[in-house]
Every structure is written in structure tokens, then in C-alpha cells.
Amino acid sequence: MLxxxxxxxxxxxxxxxxxxxxxxxxxxxxxxxxxxxxARAAGANFGQQRLWLSSMNEPTLFPALKVDDDTSIATIxxxxxxxxxxxxxxxxxxxxxxxxxxxxxxxxxLKQVEKMRNMAKExxxxxxxxxxRLAPMADFASNLSAKEIGTISRAFAHFLGVANxxxxxxxxxxxxxxxxxxxxxxxxxxxxxxxxxxTAGVLRQFLDGKAEGGQKVSKDELFQxxxxxxxxxVLTAHPTQVNxxxxxxxxxxxxNILNEADSLRETGTPYQRQLLxxxxxxxxxxxxxxxxxxxxxxxxxxEAAKGTLVLETVxxxxxxxxxxxxxxxxxxxxxxxxxxxxxASPFVFASWMGGDRxxxxxxxxxxxxxxxxxNRVKAAELLEKDVRELMGLISGNPPASHSKSAAMEKVRxxxxxxxxxxxxxxxxxxxxxLANTVKWGRQELGKLHKKNNTSGEDxxxxxxxxxxxxxxxxxxxxxxxxxxxxxxSLCDTGNAIVANGRLADVIRKVSAFGLTLVPxxxxxxxxxxxxxxxxxxxxxxxxxxxxxxxxxxxxxxxxQLQSKRPLLRAGTWNQPGNEDSFTDAARNTLETxxxxxxxxxxxxxxxxxxxxxxASDILAVLLLQRDAGVTKPLRVVPLFETLDDLNGAAATMExxxxxxxxxxxxxxxxxxxxxxxSDSAKDAGRxxxxxxxxxxxxQLAEVAKKHSIDLVYxxxxxxxxxxxxxxxxxxxxxSHAPGTINGQFRVTEQGEMINQNxxxxxxxxxxxxxxxxxxxxxxxxxRPLPTTEWKNMMDKLSEISCDAYRRIVRGDERFVPYFRAAxxxxxxxxxxxGSRPAKRKASGGVESLRAIPWIFAWTQTRSNxxxxxxxxxxxxxxxxxxxxxxxxxxxxxxxxxRTTINLVEMILSKxxxxxxxxxxxxxVSDPEALxxxxxxREIHDGTERAILxxxxxxxxxxxxxxxxxxxxxxxxxxxxxxxxxxxxxxxLRQEEEGSDEGEVLKDALLTTITxxxxxxxxxx
Length: 1020
Description:
With 1020 residues, this protein is mostly helical. It is 62% helix and 5% strand. Strands 2-1-8-7-6-5-4-3 form an 8-stranded parallel beta sheet. Helix 7 (146-184) packs across helix 10 (245-264), helix 31 packs across helix 35 and helix 35 (871-879) packs across helix 39. The longest helix has 39 residues, at 146-184. The chain is globular, with a radius of gyration of 30 Å.
């Protein structure tokens, strides 16, 4: 973290500070000055040194660099592949962090940090391998006190946190350099024309016939595709963001400082640079003194507020900015008449936060009510601010001779014929109504809080506002009509340039976010619906629904759907005398449907059924909605999760589509189906699950086509490969089975991935561009289905890999004790990053564990077992058989299969069986479990060899130079955290619950978990 020279300089400043009593913060000795004197004495050409001053001179964001053709800042800035500025930024922040540690914790602590870091670097460069190379670090950690473990862990965790911020900024820096370079070479420079995964690039490739496959696509076809396609990002409550919101905000400010520094390197004054250096020093010092451990488990409401913050602070402006660029690129590529229509919605957002009650008893009907109201308040606040800005911008008064348009007449009718600012006058009631919408939302929230005895003084004031429904906006269409009227009237009066300015951005915001910011999906397990119907049938004297077979259930529900007679009167389940007729779970389910019936337009989106296994599971939700009086039923979305569920999905939907009553209930004959990537991978292993997901989507598409149903897939993916994620978004989408996306792509985004992809404006716009480009390219890229030979091969690979995976995870009785001893799985529940329990049910083993902690635990130990287990055995067996040539041909020619194998290879390159063995050595005492650990490592090594053999690589991920470089830099720091974590786990498991030492160790453990997650770039 600090070089020897830098430590000497720190010591020198400390000595100088003691002789200068006026201010302990002043540095009287400048290392930069000292270095320059030494350079002169050595005969160096001082004229080649460029000194950028700051108040501290060193460390600085503006380092002294030689001005020559090879290393000038101008040259570096022109070369997007030059990471010297990144290294300089990281070095500067590491030094500042070292300064903060020395100042607040003493130089001895910093020496301990540096000693461990140097040991880690030496272990990576030495001849020792496996767990043996960690022995010196392990000995060092074993002699630390609990407090020292915590402090040293904090140092490494915070360093990786600020390094992540610097790397994120470097990505944005490169994006800016790319578009600047393209602009200087004649391109528009709005999006990235030279990138194959940018919308501008995709347009050019298809128009010029240079896309993969050589097909040429007409302007009209591309225009139709772009204006009709939709990507929907669903923000989920899955708890994988380990960094506190406070630290995320600080890291964001660090990125802003780095961004400003880029603009000042060539043109800024010494004073401006000094201000930035000082700002960075303050931010890093504040980061070091900030508690990185979340002390309180979030409520579903606070979880929702944190999750949607990115919409308010980034996407509210970044989305219309991206759409403006998309519009410009469409016109540039295809002509002025091919611009993006004003009300087109190529991007929309939804959320599960506050609506996902699957295994989370904390999400009650009132919680969903509260989150829906809160989202309406936020949206109205943002829109009111925008409208008041428009009132200041659109202040003109077109001459009466130009007012011969219906739209302008409508404006003048409201504004008054003599108004000198008709647009401002027209928009004033809009702003007032939006302000009333805010007051109404707070009024209703106050009533809700009062009902639940959680109200405060502000709630009492808000609930007394007495705003009625006719004073507020409840319909997105009503508000949109207001803005479109103003836009049309401006265009009709020769003011199109004004109309297509800020007003166009606001119209696009309303298209994307509406009056709810994000509609909530409701999700619940199928068992809850069956239990509710069982209580109803018993109450009605019809017998036990749960005891009926599938055919009887479907027949009965279909009859009820055709009948107009309700099964129950509202509130029957709470009436006196019915206490024994309805279980608590049934009451909660029925009250959830009652809540759905109360919601206003667009507050809710879909009803997702988890653990869906049959047609009756889907029909049950439709019936419960109808019986609750839901006037616009939510679309019912079955979630097929396990391998068996996926394999049976086509038969389930075939049965449903054969029921006229059900098909008639589909709006526009559109059916949405959710594919669960996480749980299927946990159930069968990554290789078998990925093939089942592919096959299921193909089969479902065929069933939908047969019944003339418009099928939309909802992809339930996590951020990690083990949960269906893929860091290469563009290729991941284009590699989907043909005929399964068709311009409609709905996908989950969660935890740390929300911040990584949408937390900063530049990155958010690049993510929007990637999704738009991929869905466009997918529609026009010919990808034949795999041949029968390849399908048979995939069936064989899937069967072998699934058997190998389950043989360990399910069939070996040593596995669960080994897993819980060798990983921090049991301790993860102390990490307050989510509102729901780690398990769907309090009892049960690995099968009841959610996919996130399952992946999270293996990621922490650098094993990553769920991603690769089973794959190596399958590949090795086929390569040793007569089918070897077929497998190699598949890898070479079939992009979907190659993507899957490459992802496994990438995860293996980030894994470290030596680290995993170190955890075993310290934490596993059972000889049988240790023997299993040894076997798993043998399988891991065999999987590496199999992947290298199939890919033809000499080194894992040898073509991914960026990944290898990042891991080379990060590994020593993460190694330190792994060693500290293992030592902490060992002591914590020996400590008495509630002891002072145990509490210190718990904090240290949570810090190491955060640090490893920052170092690996993901959690679950």
C-alpha cells in the first residue's frame, strides 16, 4: 500500500510536524521536491520533469511525468489501452489511505499491513504452491489480536473498495476516449460506431452487410425493430450488495473527483488541482473512519428505498440522455425520418423490492402498499421539479398568426387568450396537480403508518392534508397528454427546436417511469396459493383442495373462473367463528390479493409464482385475483426453477393453452414465463442447468407458436456465473436460442450489479446501449438450432455432469458438514444486507438454502464450486470416447456452447484451490470431511485440465488480458483477506457466544467478507 520511500517521507513529515506546533496537518518536507533535488544531483534532465503542485505535493492526482513522445499525458489520454493513469490513481489513493491509517491508528498498524501485503506478493511470485505458500501469512495472522485482525482487514477491504472506484472510472475514461476518437475521425460520436456491441455499431454492420453472417438489413426493418423492442430491467431484493450506502456514496464522490482531475490535467490551474487533491484526501480519510459493517438488518421498505435510489439519482437523467443519443445515431445512420419516436419505450424498469414475499415473512400486504405509495411520491416529486424547470425554459409567446393548431388553441384556452407566457400558464396547473399528488401520497402513507402504529409527527401533518383523488394524477396517460399537447403546439408554431429540447426528455421519462417510478412485481410460492384454496374449499364444505389430484384441481378452478359467483366475501377469513377455518398463511395470502385489488394503475406489474410445477399452480393465482375483485388482473408468470420444473415446463404450458378460459384471460394473447437460472444451477450444476434452460425455451416457443400465443421470457439471473450471469452482456443475449427473445427481453438485476451497471451516468448509458444493441442484433442474427447430433451430445454432457454434481452435493453424506465447516455459510446471516432469511424454510439442508448464500459462501473461499462441479467429468468422459471430434467441433462452431465453456473457464481462472485448502486446514476437523475436500480439489484440477484441453488454451482465460491483469493486481490483497477470514472463523467458532472478544471477531469477519467480495467483484 505504501512504498519504502513513501514510508520514509511520512516519517519525515511526522518529524517535521513535531517541530511545527502551528499545525500538525502541514507537511514541511515535500517528497516531490526531495525527489527533484535527488534527480538533479544524479545528473537527470530536470527540464524533462513536469511538476503539478498540490497543497501536499505528494501524493497527488497530478504526478510529475516526463514530457516526451512516449509518456506525456497527452499521449496517455489518446491511448485508451494505457492503464498508467489508472495505476497512478490507485497508487495515490493507496498512499492517502496509508496516511489516514498512520494518523488515526499509528505507524505500527501500517507496518503490519505492509508486512502482510509484501508476504502475499512474495507468496504469489515464489516457488511454493497450494496452501503451503500461505503458511507465512497464516503464522502472521495467528499472532494478531482480534482487534488487529479487524483493523488490518479494514485496510485491505477499503483499499479494494477505492481500487474498484478507480477501475470503474477507468472504464468511463476509456468510453469517453473512444467516442472522442470516433468524433475526430468523422463519426457522430454520440454512441460507439466502431464497437460491435454498441447500437451505432450494430446499425452500421447490418446496413452495410458486415454483420456476422454477412446479412444486410434494410432501414425500415431496423427502424421497426428498434422502435418496437423493449428491454425491461427488474431490480430485485436479492441481497448481494455488501457495501453500505454511505460507502457507495463516498466511492461515487471519489469517481467524480477522478473525473474532474482528467479535465484539469492539461488545462487546470495549480489552485484547481490543489482543490481536487485536498478533496480526495478528505474523502479517503473519511472512508477510513467510516464503519463498513451494516449494524441493522434492513426492512423491506428501506431495502426498496436503497434499491430504487439509482433510478432517482442516475437513471432519471441518464435514460433520456441515452435515448437522445440513440435518436441522433438512428438519424445519422438511416436518415432524418428514422429518428426515435417520442413516446417509444425501448427501456422500462420494474422492481421486486417490497413485492417479493417468497420466503420473506417481512413483506406483508401493508409493506407492499407502503412501497407503492412511496414510489408514487418519488415519481411525482421528480416530475414536478421537471415541470417547474420547463415553465422557466418555455417562456415564449408565439404570434397569434401562428396559433392555428388544435394543440395551440388548447394551450391558449387554459392559459387565457391574453397570456404573455401561454406555455408557462398551461403547465402551472400540471405542476400544482403533481404537487398535490405528492401531498396525497404522503397523506395516505400517514394513514398507513397510523394504522400500524408507526406514525411520526410528519405523518400526522401529512394525513391531515385531505387531498382527494380528483386533485391528483393517477394515470400516466393523463399526464402524457398534457406534455404531448405542449410539444405539438410548439412544433405547430415553428418552435420544434424548443419542443425537442428538455420537454422531449420529460416525455421520455414519463414513457419509461410513468407515475410509479417502477411497478412492483408480486412474487409468492405456489404452496401458499394451494393452502389458501384448501382453506376455502374446506370452509365451503367441498373437501380438501390439497388432497385432490391435478386433474380435479384444474377442472374445479376452470369451473370457478367461468362462474361469476365469488367464492368468499371480502374479509370472511377474519370474521368471528372462522378462526379455525383459515391458517395464518392463508389469511396473509388472501389479504395480499385484497391489497392487489386496491392498487391504482401501473402500481403493480406481474404476479410471479415461484416453485411452479403444474397448470393448477397458475390457474390458482388467476382465480384468487378474480375472487378478490381485481379489475385489471396482474399477468400471471410461472417461474420454472429446478431441473425437473424446467423439463416439465412445456407440458405445463401445453395444458394451459388448451384451456379456452385461460387463453381468454391473456391480454393480447401474451404469456410471460420466467426461467430460473439460480436455483436450476444449484439443483443440477451449471452445465446441466444451462442446457435445460436452453432446451426449455426452445420447447416453450414451439408450444406458444402452436397455440398462437405471444411468449415473453423473463430471465431470472444473478450477477455471478453460478447464478446465470455473464459479464459479456451482448454475447450472452445474442447466444440465446433463436426465436426466444424477438425484441422483448425482461431480466433481473440485483445487489452489487445494480451499482456496477447503473450507479454512474457514463456506465449506466453504456449498459443501456449494450442491452439495446444486443436485443437489436439478436433479431437479425441468423443462428440455426443445434443439429440432432449436437443436441444428443448436449443431452449426454448434461446427464454426466448432473450425475457428477449431485453425487457430491446430494449423494455424499460428508458434503453438508464439509460445506458448513469449510465456508462462512453459517456466519453469513450476520451480514445485514437483506431483509429476508437465507433459507426459504427454517429447517432443511443445502436444498432449502437460497442460491445467493450458496454461491456467496463458495465465492468467499475462492472455490466457486457450484459453477464448475460436474463440467470437467462430462468433458473428460466425452473427450476420451469416440465422440471427441463432435465435442471439439461443437466448441469451435456453436457460439452458445462455447460461451458456456468459456464462462466456466473464466470462473476457474478466478478460483484458487490452495486458498480453499487453507480454509480446510484451519476449519475442518472431521477426517471424513477432509477426505471429501481432497477429492473435490482433485475434481477441480481435473476440470481445469479438461477445459484447457477442449479450449486449446495453455493458460486459463489466456485471451482475457484485462481479467488476468486485474486478478494479478488484486490477488495479493484478496489472499490477505482470505487468510485473515479463515483465522477469524477459527477463533469465532471457538469463542463463547456474546463475549466481548466474539463481538470484535464478528466485526472482523464481516469486514473480510466485504473485502473479499470487493476483491472478487461479486458476491452471490
